[in-house]
């Protein structure tokens, strides 16, 4: 049972919602509406994934508080006995629920999105979070790229980078046991009043004290952000998160994602390798997003690109720690 995964801390599990933030959700009745099919069906859908929908709703008895409700199915929608592939997928979703509860259910940091509550029903689970009205970093960068809207100026991009680094430092250094996120990417960085929040801990793993690494049964994460040593050996460390963070730093300055067609048309066909070559060329500023040029911060952006190159070194031992990167980024003064 999931009770074992959360170490018996939430004794109401199975008879009502498990509330992780009692200062926000004061009692189980606040989430009673999630037990009613007609009410859930009427909620605003703000996202869809393989596991189910993500809803947006006001939190009863908390004026002005909007919550995001992530639905994860326990079985097929028609109630039929799941086939082998579907059963494997359902098992994967259950593992991700356990991971979210074990990790994000207990952590509190301004740059991490906390899990507010967990509601279980016969057919599904609901994970409740604070709703981030500004969406993800991926969404904001897409809007900036496709619509030409510069809502992400350099000062804001730098603030986001510092915030994510601070969140990683908490996970890697200050939290005991240490936590490795394993799926750090712009889509999992949310914006709360211009304050970056790391989200989606479904693949996160705690690292027992004394362990230098963990080993997975298969590669988890998103193509373009996965550290090469993890892909090759299935062993992951905090330095794998740092590689992913380096790719995010690069994307913030370049204004492009690893999956963009742009890189498929380059000799390197890879964001990290392309960045290394440009940074070693006679014109490293060619890597900077054209929308950010001419603002007087080119030197700062080149410095951040150098940090991105450090974070994405092939040898994980040569990559800086999250604390070192947070300090370096914080020392960049506008």
TrEMBL record:
Q: What is this protein called?
A: Leucine-rich repeat receptor-like serine/threonine/tyrosine-protein kinase SOBIR1
Give the taxonomic lineage as stored in the record: Eukaryota, Viridiplantae, Streptophyta, Embryophyta, Tracheophyta
Compartments, as annotated in UniProt: Membrane
Q: Which UniProt keywords apply?
A: Glycoprotein, Kinase, Leucine-rich repeat, Membrane, Receptor, Repeat, Signal, Transferase, Transmembrane, Transmembrane helix
One of the record's GO molecular function terms = ATP binding
Q: Domain Protein kinase, which positions?
A: 40-334
Q: What species was this sequence derived from?
A: Iris pallida
PROSITE patterns per UniProt: PROTEIN_KINASE_DOM (PS50011)
Give a GO cellular-component term.
membrane
* SMART domains per UniProt: S_TKc
Q: Entry's InterPro entries?
A: Kinase-like_dom_sf, LRR_receptor-like_kinase, Prot_kinase_dom
User: Its topology with respect to the membrane?
Assistant: Single-pass membrane protein
């Amino acid at each position: 049972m999931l009770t074992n995964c959360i170490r018996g801390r939430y004794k109401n599990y199975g008879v009502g919602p498990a509330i992780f933030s009692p200062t926000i959700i004061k009692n189980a009745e606040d989430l009673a509406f999630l037990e009613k099919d007609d009410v859930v069906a009427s909620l605003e859908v703000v996202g869809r994934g393989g596991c189910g929908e993500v809803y947006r709703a006001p939190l009863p008895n908390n004026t002005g508080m909007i919550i995001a409700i992530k639905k994860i199915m326990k079985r097929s929608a028609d109630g039929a006995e799941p086939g082998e592939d579907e059963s494997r997928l359902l098992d994967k979703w259950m593992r991700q629920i356990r991971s979210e509860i074990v990790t994000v259910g207990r952590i509190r940091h301004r740059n991490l999105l906390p899990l507010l509550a967990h509601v279980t029903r016969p057919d599904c689970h609901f994970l409740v979070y604070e709703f981030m009205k500004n969406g993800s970093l991926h969404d904001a960068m897409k809007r900036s790229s496709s619509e030409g809207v510069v809502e992400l100026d350099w000062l804001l991009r730098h603030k986001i980078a510092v915030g994510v680094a601070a969140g990683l430092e908490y996970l890697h250094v200050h939290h005991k046991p240490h936590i490795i996120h394993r799926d750090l990417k712009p889509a999992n960085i949310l914006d709360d009043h211009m304050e970056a929040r790391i989200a989606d801990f479904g693949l996160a793993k705690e690292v027992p004290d004394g362990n230098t690494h963990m080993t997975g049964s298969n590669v988890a994460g998103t193509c373009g952000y996965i550290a090469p040593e993890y892909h090759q050996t299935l062993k992951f460390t905090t330095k794998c998160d740092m590689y992913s963070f380096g790719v995010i730093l690069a994307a913030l300055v370049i204004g492009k994602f690893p999956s963009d067609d742009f890189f498929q048309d380059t000799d390197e066909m890879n964001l990290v390798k392309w960045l290394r070559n440009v940074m070693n060329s006679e014109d490293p500023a060619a890597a900077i997003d054209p929308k950010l040029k001419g603002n007087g911060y080119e030197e700062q952006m080149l410095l951040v690109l150098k940090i991105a190159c450090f974070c994405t070194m092939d040898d994980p031992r040569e990559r800086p720690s999250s604390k070192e990167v947070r300090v370096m980024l914080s020392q960049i003064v506008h």
